[in-house]
From TrEMBL:
One GO CC annotation: pore complex
Protein name stated in the entry: Tetraspanin-33
Lineage, uppermost ranks: Eukaryota, Metazoa, Chordata, Craniata, Vertebrata
GO MF annotation: an example: enzyme binding
Subcellular location: Cell junction, Adherens junction; Cell membrane; Cytoplasm
ATP-binding among keywords: no
Entry's family note: Belongs to the tetraspanin (TM4SF) family.
Length: 247
């Protein structure tokens, strides 16, 4: 699943290399495609018209995504890292992007891409003597480890953290030591359990069986040469004979 998601992410970055788009646009596009395929299948079932091509296309795309993700894992990871670094650079430019980064860092308990030093690439958190920002040499509050007895959110907890000495094992005191890329990869690798693999294999087997069934229906000879005109719109009455059982 990680490889598949990274492939999709890489393709999106290649086509539109920007973070100004609303993330909801991707959901709208995917949802529209699924709705189109579903509604075509519904009309096909009403008309007894099998959609063999659609099923085969979906299966081929799934296989292709897995193969591409396996062969180009390093390239996909590199592109993903660049995209995450670009997100850090634009942290304060977009409120939605800022909220998304804060959510990821709090959810996965991470800071930056590789480590907290990545935040020096942002103009507000750049650690230099010429930076007039109050957040210079700091990190966002979402990088901070929240205390158990803390009731009020301290949005200034990351100030000056880049100036602190980096310990090899524990990182900087008060902030998450690991980068988000490492944490996300670890989380994604942990998700596909044995049950998930069985589910994916079962889904692929179901798709193949449906494709074979549709193919058999297409190749089956027609038992009747003539049909009622009503059966064109109402296939359920196709085998109904007015001459039989006529009292």
């Amino acid at each position: 699943w990680l490889q598949f998601r990274c492939v999709c992410l890489c393709v999106c970055v290649y086509v539109v290399d920007t973070l100004t788009l609303d993330p909801a646009l991707l959901l709208i596009v995917v949802g529209s495609m699924m709705f189109l395929i579903t509604i075509l299948g519904c009309f096909g079932a009403l008309r007894n018209a099998p959609f063999f091509g659609d099923l085969l296309t979906v299966l081929v795309l799934q296989i292709a995504a897995g193969v591409v993700g396996y062969l180009f894992t390093d390239m996909v990871m590199e592109r993903t890292e660049k995209l995450m670094m670009k997100a850090i650079v634009r942290y304060r430019e977009d409120q939605d992007l800022e909220n998304a980064i804060d959510f990821i860092q709090k959810k996965f308990q991470c800071c930056g891409v590789e480590n907290f030093k990545d935040w020096s690439n942002n103009v507000y958190f750049e650690c230099s003597d010429t930076n007039p920002s109050l957040e210079a040499c700091g990190v966002p509050f979402s990088c901070c480890v929240r205390q158990q007895n803390q009731t009020v959110l301290n949005t200034m907890c990351g100030y000056g953290k880049q100036r602190q000495k980096l310990e090899a094992r524990y990182g900087v005191q008060g902030i998450f030591p690991s980068g988000c890329l490492e944490k996300i990869v670890w989380w994604a690798k942990k998700q596909p359990s044995a049950g998930g693999r069985v589910l994916m294999i079962s889904l692929a087997a179901a798709q193949i069986s449906w494709i074979k069934k549709v193919q058999r229906q297409q190749n089956a000879p027609k038992s009747r040469k003539t049909e009622r005109k009503d059966s064109y719109w109402y296939p359920a009455f196709k085998d109904f004979n007015d001459d039989e059982n006529n009292l």
